[in-house]
Design goal:
Layout: E1 5-9, E2 18-22, E3 28-29, E4 38-40, E5 43-50, E6 58-60, E7 69-71, E8 73-74, E9 77-78, E10 93-96, E11 121-124, E12 135-148, E13 151-160, H1 172-178, H2 182-192, E14 203-204, H3 213-231, H4 256-264, H5 280-288
Parallel strand pairs: 11-13
Antiparallel strand pairs: 1-2, 2-3, 4-5, 5-10, 5-12, 6-7, 8-9, 10-11, 12-13, 12-14
């Protein structure tokens, strides 16, 4: 067990919906800044934002205090990814590695583009469908260099260390060998997933080839360095909320009571009163039309 827990506020699939993270003491924390990047030697924490096969585009709210998970909004409407044939929603558990940041002021030497201003993304390929807001421990296997509308947007490939087959996966070539076609599907999905919204296909560095585990860890650690500069105010965050409860060298550190006050000002926790559509596909179709 990770020791972390989550708490939903307001009903899912509404503009007010939020998922806040708590530590082992039940105190509210930031999933962006307060969860350690490393869970163990060469094992990273991952914040699950989107469970596999789901469509709602959930993400860490980098500009909100305590950075809860919320559904992305564009032009006042909640965002969903289309069911891009032949796929159903996201084809992995999707999320981010905490205490990382793709700096929009840094021009990446590999892609020739600056960072996308978010924590680094992770695609977890294990057999379990994780829950939104779940904190899992992952083994990094490789990385894909995507260029999204002119911004660097790395995609880490990883597997949950609790997965029954995790011991068989140690580098990107193991994914090619044990899940034939999965990496090709991953590139295809990322290339085309914005096309139904009228946007062009995404591009990739390295001719859309996945780099290995060692390369991936180097990239992750570089984004950790950018994050540290951000949270210690050595870099202009340009609107990012760096409020945290654990980073002692950060001028944005607050006490647990201040964090609780942020959450207490919001709608009450989501319990039985929050109705979640039982037929998600029908509900999604209704929302799109």
């Amino acid at each position: 067990m990770s020791g972390f827990s989550s708490e939903e506020r307001a009903a899912p699939f509404t503009l007010e919906y939020r998922v806040f993270l708590k530590n082992e003491k039940g105190q509210y924390i930031s999933p962006f800044h307060d969860i350690p990047i490393y869970a163990d030697k060469e094992v990273f924490h991952m914040v699950v934002e989107v469970p596999r096969w789901s469509n709602a585009k959930m993400e860490i709210a980098t500009k909100d205090p305590l950075n809860p998970i919320k559904q992305d909004v564009k032009k006042g409407k909640l965002r969903y990814v289309a069911n891009l044939f032949p796929y159903k929603g996201y084809i992995w558990n999707y999320g981010a590695i905490p205490q990382t940041w793709e700096d929009p002021g840094h021009n990446d030497k590999h892609t020739g583009c600056c960072g996308d201003n978010d924590p680094i993304d992770v695609c977890e390929i294990g057999s379990k469908v994780c829950a939104r807001g779940e904190i899992i421990r992952v083994k990094v296997l490789g990385i894909l260099a995507m260029i999204d509308e002119g911004e660097t947007d790395w995609k880490v490939i990883a597997i949950n260390v609790e997965d029954p087959d995790a011991a068989n996966y140690n580098d990107i070539n193991d994914v090619k060998r044990l899940k034939p076609g999965y990496l090709e599907a991953t590139v295809d999905w990322f290339r085309r997933y914005k096309v139904p919204d009228g946007k062009p296909e995404n591009e990739f560095a390295f001719n859309a080839e996945f780099k290995d585990k060692s390369f991936a860890i180097d990239i992750i650690e570089s984004t950790h360095d950018y994050w540290r500069a951000l949270v210690t105010k050595k870099t202009d965050g340009k609107g990012i909320s760096c409020m945290n409860t654990t980073v002692s060298e950060s001028p944005f550190q607050c006490d647990p009571d201040a964090a609780k006050a942020i959450v207490d000002a919001l709608p009450p926790p989501c319990e039985s009163a929050c109705t979640i559509p039982t037929d998600v596909d029908k509900w999604f179709h209704h929302q799109k039309n």
